[in-house]
Amino acid sequence: MQNGTKPSPARRLWNGLAPRDSDDEEQLRIGNAVRLLGVGAFVGIVPFLFLEWRSGWMPQVWLLSIVELVLLGALWLNRRGQVRMAALALNATALVCGAALVFLSAAGYRDVSLLLFPGIPVLAGLLLPRSYYWAMSAAAVLVAASLILLQIHGLIPYATQPGAYIDLIATVVILMLTSVAVGYLVVALGNSRRLAQATIDALWHHTCVLDGKGMVLAVTRASRLADVSPPIPLPASVSVNYLDLCEKASGSKARETAAFAAGLRAVLRGEQEEFAMEYACHSPCEDRCFLTKVRRVGAPGAIRVVIAHEDVTGQRRAEQALRVSEEQHRQLVQNLHAGVVVHGPDTRILLANEQACRLLGLSEEEIRGKAAVDPVWAFFRPDETPLPLQEYPVNQVLASRSPVRDLVSAVRRPGTEDLVWLLVNAFPELGPRGELRQVVVT
After folding, report:
1. Are 190 and 233 found together in one domain?
2. 20 to 30 Å CA-CA from 170: which of 6, 46, 295, 353?
3. What is the pLDDT of residue 291?
4. What is the value of pTM for the model shown?
């Protein structure tokens, strides 16, 4: 509290009824809703219970007393963090209370104020499975409708005072409206959850979602790693703690699992937004490589962490094949008797073989990175007059995007007056969209 003021007893009581041990956004939302509805219903029923007891209407007194006890039990469950059980208790109580009011109305007991109660805690029925909720709602409505028919045909005696049927009709209407409204919300919530799970199942990689304590909230239905034995454990179902799975690893898997668990804890604590590591995951048929990524995602009022295990075997094989191919081509270029120089789009030298370095009088370290405008170069025409910069082979290719063939030119080696006569060919290497990647000069 601000300024050191102590909270009031009512505030302390309200805070004490808050659900414990829950950093899940949905659990907190439902727990707070149960606390609000439960406390509101409990306090609101107290004056009616007193009035009914003073009036001698014992059926209502017993009904309201039982409801108050159930509400206390629901609040106790909610405080312990069992918000689903608390919501189920509120919902079941509301439906049973509504059905009991129908019987009381049929027996001649009247109190319209009691009819307000079924519409309050029934909102907590969002967590109740759809099949059970519809069954209970349908049963309550059928009972009310049957009583109306029985009274219409005179098979059940009913009070004859004016407005006696108002209680019965109001009860039926409330039950039907709450059944339809909450049923609609249950269907919408169920569709949303199924869509979220279907989205996760559609992912090719093994993916799971954790809460702030490492509990698995969602996981892909089918693991792509079923035929291997990964060093990092993969959860196959929800409601398990990923960190506990990592701690159970032993033997050769313990080292990689410990490194993964340390990165996961850092993300859960908010010390870093993401973590990634690569690990070997061999099958009996082939060697495999996997990349696991842990990322913290934004979720209002809760912590969510997404973990994805991706098979990067094909990518690593392609990279290895590319390195081998580049080395083979490099060896081929280095062993050519002709000098080969590769320029980038900015004329800087990317590669030069040994013969080119020998002809130009520079080492490979000295020649790499130099541009056509570098003063170290001095090109000449056949008549030994200086060759203009724009007529350098690489600049001609850059300007025309066309090859240069059989150009006779001389180059003066740095630090000497000797001229080396060359027969120069140059051609551009273009990308798939026509962009210039490099110019090869021989």
Report:
1. no
2. 46
3. 83
4. 0.47
